[in-house]
Amino acid sequence: MPTKKSSKPAIKQIKPSGKTDENFFSWVYDVARQIPKGRVTSYGAIAASLGAKSSARMVGWAMNGAQKLKPKVPAHRVVNRNGMLSGKMHFDTPDAMEKLLAKEGIKVKNDQVVDFEKHFWDPAIEL
DNA sequence: GCATTGACGAAGG
DNA sequence: CCCTTCGCCAATG
Prior knowledge:
This protein is mostly helical. It has a single domain, classed as Arc Repressor Mutant, subunit A (Orthogonal Bundle). It is about 35% helix and about 5% strand. Helix 1 (about 20-35) packs across helix 3 and helix 2 (about 45-50) packs across helix 3. The termini are far apart. The relative contact order is 0.17. The structure holds a DNA duplex.
């Protein structure tokens, strides 16, 4: 039943222009979606698992579109190396990230994840 | 087309 | 120990 029209290409289209090598970006989204509930990881860890540990910034930039992506990417589970919610301000509301984390059992204090190491999830190892 | 910025990270002073 | 600088690469002005 090949009635499958070529529609809905997994992941892509970060930009309506259709530019951008979605390779790197897509990988980031893919990994981010695989983050177990109640766990967090860092931008650098994701970048490193992709073979671009130096491009942690790109991971963060990728997250910028992650919120609108479908299915949405749990960007709230991704924080910086210090466990700080550096990207909370980029959500719909500054409280969204903190709230989502708290909902999954992760405590956030002063924009920082409590017991970050304990909740840390390394895609390069676990994946 | 060049300059600045950015949800980071590691290294240097 | 805190602050500054560099690297990374793409988007935006």
